[in-house]
From TrEMBL:
It is found in: Membrane. One of its GO terms (cellular component) is external side of plasma membrane. PANTHER family: CYTOKINE RECEPTOR, INTERLEUKIN 5 RECEPTOR SUBUNIT ALPHA. This is CSF2R factor. GO terms for molecular function: cytokine receptor activity. It is a single-pass type I membrane protein. Keywords: Glycoprotein, Membrane, Receptor, Signal, Transmembrane, Transmembrane helix. Residues 10-99 form the Type I cytokine receptor cytokine-binding domain. Its main location: membrane. PROSITE patterns: HEMATOPO_REC_S_F2 (PS01356).
Length: 150
């Protein structure tokens, strides 16, 4: 239902700093200034659907994203729905399932320590795994070290 071209476009979400999530989108190509969008999500099948509480707005006051706090990553699909209206008419809705662990941007490794000995021309590097809410084994991480001579 709803007029063609009114559904949102380019929906994307990212989780950062362990428990924060931002979802953003572009307004539909035929959306007018009085079009308003509303985001609903369900973190897992066992949880209730809730509406965004902290919208990101464009210059016209239209919702173009949402900020979430205290997001817990489960190895299950989260469900997203964006619908809305303009001048009392429904617009096309948009639905998407996302595996939350796939959109997490990890923090850098923590407590990086470097120890070099001039006599042996060797360096040792230690670090702790990045913070994450869902990876329990540090062996799940792979690291790349780039060494530059300056």
């Amino acid at each position: 239902a709803g007029m063609n071209g009114t559904a949102i476009e380019n929906f994307a979400c990212i989780i950062f700093n362990v428990s924060f999530m931002n979802c953003t989108w572009h307004v539909g190509e035929t959306a007018t200034e009085d079009t308003q969008y509303f985001l609903y999500w369900r973190p897992s099948e066992k949880e209730d659907v809730t509406e965004c509480q902290n919208y990101i707005k464009d210059n016209c006051g239209r919702h173009t994203g949402c900020r979430f706090q205290n997001v817990t990553i489960a190895n299950k699909n989260a469900y997203f729905l964006v619908n809305g209206s303009r001048s009392g008419q429904n617009i096309q809705s948009y639905e998407k399932k996302i595996l939350l662990y796939q959109i997490e941007k990890l923090t850098p490794p923590l407590n990086v320590t470097v120890s070099c000995t001039e006599a042996s021309h060797r360096c040792s590097i230690w670090w702790q795994p990045p913070l994450t809410s869902h990876v329990k084994k540090s062996s799940c991480f792979k690291y790349e070290i780039v060494i530059e001579n300056k």
